Amino acid sequence: MAFDFGALFGRKSPPLIGLDISSSGVKLVELSEAGKSLKLECFASEPLPRGAVVDGNIENIDQVSDAIARAWRKSGTRVKLVAMGMPPASVITKKITLPSNLSEENLELQVETEASQYIPFALDEVRLDFDVIGPVENSPDDVDVMLAATRKEKVEDRVAVAEAAGLKPTVMDIESYAARAAIDRIARQKIGKGQILAAFQIGTNVMHVSILQDGELIYEREQPFGGHQLTQDIVRNYGFSYEEAEIKKKSGDLPDGYQKEILEPFLENAAQEVTRAIQFFFTSTPYSRVDQIYLAGGCANIPQLVETVATRTKISTSVISPFAGMQLGSNVREKQLRIEAPAYLVACGLAMRRFDQ
Questions:
Q1: pLDDT tens digit string along 86-135?
Q2: What is residue 197's three-state secondary structure?
Q3: What are phi and psi of 332, to 5 degrees?
Q4: Distance from C-alpha of 159 to C-alpha of 148, rounded to nearest angstrom
Q5: How far apart are the first and last CA of the chain?
Q6: Are 38 and 31 in contact (CB under 8 A)?
Q7: How many CB atoms lie within 10 A of CB 236?
Q8: For residue range 157-188, what is the model confidence (pLDDT) as tens digits?
């Protein structure tokens, strides 16, 4: 199957939609330009059955492609070109230094030679892309190059589910890069120069931590923690099926005692995980402060989570909406957007690839 794993690092692409596939569901976003700002044309999501996507791997192509098709119809978009993301754990990235005077052909050959040192697979088993970042400081004859590689079958699985839903993948990004683009757009609006921002995406099974200063990533890690634990506690305590527990968790339709017996311990655990991640950051880097915490992901809007994290960390904490400052299309339901926006960080970042220069 022919697929261009190029465009990973910001080459110009035509109008497209951002499509995020996670273990809990699929999310879709379409953006357009509105003067000097962006406009949210539409967004939609569809849940996935348990086991359809496991650890970023697509286990059931039919279930995932059906969910994508339903989300696409629900959104009202007509765009069929999509930008998709690869889970960070399935992509190897490495910054290398090469001579600046190489021709394009020699640069590609040199990148492949260098890549073979870092990639534990045969090169014919991987999709490889690279981007020239720019000159090396204090070494004008050299350039920094970022290379990225992932197993072919990982890319092809994602291509297959999109194509089965009638869509055409044209850009393959890395989910953490897409989320970072969305975070950086908000940070430039709200955070002062030199401030250190910690973004916590709390998903179903994984909490992804990105710490940025002036748009530059200075620290990143993943921790095994997410909303799955809260759902499992509800299942254990009340005997609901997993699917029932998910619905009741979101609606708040739970027995008396839920708040004190289940939710509060989960919130304390979440705040402890955030605190631990910040301590890891302090002990493994020269930095000793964080000025702002942003919470995102499907768990960000759990009642009292912001307050619990702020109290435990003693750092200003808020929920991040990737659509903050955007104009809203006529089809966008604002009430639904306020509730669901934090879960669309990756999908929004992918949709922003439309505007890459």
A1: 998 889 888 888 888 888 888 888 888 888 888 888 888 888 888 888 88
A2: strand
A3: -85, 125
A4: 18
A5: 27
A6: yes
A7: 11
A8: 999 999 999 999 999 999 998 999 999 898 88
